[in-house]
Backbone:
């Protein structure tokens, strides 16, 4: 009895059976904890395993402290509990191994994921297993992409070619250095020194044109036709931009030149060659109430030198002209290269001014030299390649000032167009009268007016 009481006191009042039952209960709790650990990350499992091992060790130590060493049956039972703890640790180690294998499998699957180009191809090209709707969408995309490339690549090539031509032109412009102090004799028979470098490169050189403050700054050549230099640059290399050329029928010699020098230049999309000339016409219509006419006001004078003379030219008119007979009248402004008589000159100028969008304060008379600049123009929707823009200027006379009263410039209220414009743009409106003040044509007198049934405006106008 004494022995039994002593054991109960040492074990805190717990019998051996109660201690074993308590160990079994804690082992069951550990098993439940293991089941709940499913889905926990490997790191979490390791932490739980450490905690469980610590708890099991503590429990074993506690039990060992409360069991008498001489009670062999109790020791055997506690040894069984230790074996259970060892099994628990083995189970936890196995769980950790399985988690590591799962992570390795996931990593392998990620590594085996198809590369970007393979996935891109599958996303664009019809593939086995695609449904009908997806195949149709892919085919539409492929066709659209091919069409895009077919248009974008040539366009990009053209733009790059234009910029290349621009760089070539800039290099050429640096070769022509105008010496303002050079005194050129009135009847000079010698080629001006400023042209010698250009002539060494291209013997077809006949002049140089420049409009201050614009990209118009080019040598002028003259070939054996009006086609070659549309597609060849100053160096005679093939070029989309071509170069500025004079009508091959014009004459430039030491003894003089044609009465109407006609120059042609492309209207390039990047703003080079004769593209700036469009601003003359555009700024006549940049406001419905009060057009600015800003480009003309800023550039009323053009510089054009021939091989034998330096000269400035005052702009007196500009307009657009039809070149397609199917659309109405074709007025051949570029076919009159010389004037055979005063009437011939007067008639040409009157026809030009009836078609000019602007009336300037510049006067004209028979014997004046005329300069015509011609380029492509697209003033109306649907006009296509059927319209040309022409700028007309006359040479500043000897002793005449180069100043122009640009504030006196006005728009032509009744511009003479062609039938297509009347039908498609003007709503049936047709030209019916000439409104240019022919007093500006100094070689046109009262007898001419009477013959033409024309009445001069009142002198106070």
Residues:
């Amino acid at each position: 009895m004494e022995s039994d009481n002593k054991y109960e006191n040492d074990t805190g009042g717990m019998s051996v059976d109660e201690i074993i039952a308590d160990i079994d209960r804690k082992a069951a709790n550990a098993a439940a904890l293991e089941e709940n650990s499913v889905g926990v990350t490997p790191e979490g499992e390791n932490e739980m395993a450490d905690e469980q091992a610590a708890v099991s060790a503590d429990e074993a130590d506690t039990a060992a402290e409360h069991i008498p060493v001489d009670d062999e049956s109790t020791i055997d039972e506690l040894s069984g509990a230790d074996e259970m703890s060892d099994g628990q640790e083995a189970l936890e180690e196995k769980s950790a191994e399985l988690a590591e294998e799962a992570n390795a499998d996931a990593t392998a699957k990620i590594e085996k994921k198809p590369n970007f180009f393979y996935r891109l191809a599958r996303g664009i090209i019809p593939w086995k297993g695609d449904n009908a709707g997806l195949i149709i969408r892919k085919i539409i995309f492929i066709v659209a992409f091919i069409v895009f490339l077919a248009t974008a690549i040539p366009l990009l090539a053209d733009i790059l070619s234009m910029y290349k031509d621009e760089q070539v032109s800039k290099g050429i412009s640096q070769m022509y250095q105008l010496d303002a102090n050079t005194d050129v004799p009135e009847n000079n028979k010698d080629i001006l020194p400023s042209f010698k470098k250009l002539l060494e490169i291209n013997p077809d050189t006949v002049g140089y044109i420049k409009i201050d403050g614009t990209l118009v700054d080019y040598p002028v050549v003259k070939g054996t036709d009006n086609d070659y230099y549309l597609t060849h640059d100053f160096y005679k290399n093939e070029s989309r931009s071509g170069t500025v050329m004079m009508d091959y029928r014009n004459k430039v010699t030491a003894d003089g030149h044609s009465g109407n020098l006609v120059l042609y230049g492309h209207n390039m999309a990047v703003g080079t060659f004769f593209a700036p000339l469009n601003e003359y016409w555009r700024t006549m219509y940049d406001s419905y109430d009060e057009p600015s006419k800003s480009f003309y006001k800023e550039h009323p004078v053009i510089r054009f030198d021939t091989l034998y003379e330096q000269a400035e030219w005052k702009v007196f008119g500009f307009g657009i002209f039809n070149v397609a007979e199917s659309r109405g009248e074709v007025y051949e402004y570029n076919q009159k290269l010389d004037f055979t008589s005063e009437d011939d000159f007067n008639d040409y100028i009157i026809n030009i001014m009836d078609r000019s969008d602007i009336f300037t304060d510049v006067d004209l008379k028979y014997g004046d030299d005329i300069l015509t600049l011609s380029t492509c123009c697209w003033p109306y929707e649907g006009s296509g390649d059927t319209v040309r823009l022409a700028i007309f200027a006359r040479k500043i006379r000897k002793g005449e000032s180069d100043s122009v009263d640009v504030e006196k410039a006005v728009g032509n209220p009744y511009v003479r167009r062609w039938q297509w414009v009347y039908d498609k743009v003007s709503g049936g409106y047709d030209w019916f009268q000439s409104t240019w003040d022919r007093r500006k044509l100094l070689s046109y007198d009262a007898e001419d007016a009477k013959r033409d049934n024309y009445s001069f405006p009142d002198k106070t106008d």
Summary: The chain is about 40% helix and 15% strand. The longest strand covers residues 312-322. Residues 194-451 form a domain with the Sortase; Chain: A; fold (CATH 2.40.260.10). Confidence is low (pLDDT under 50) at residues 1-11, 38-42, 62-71.
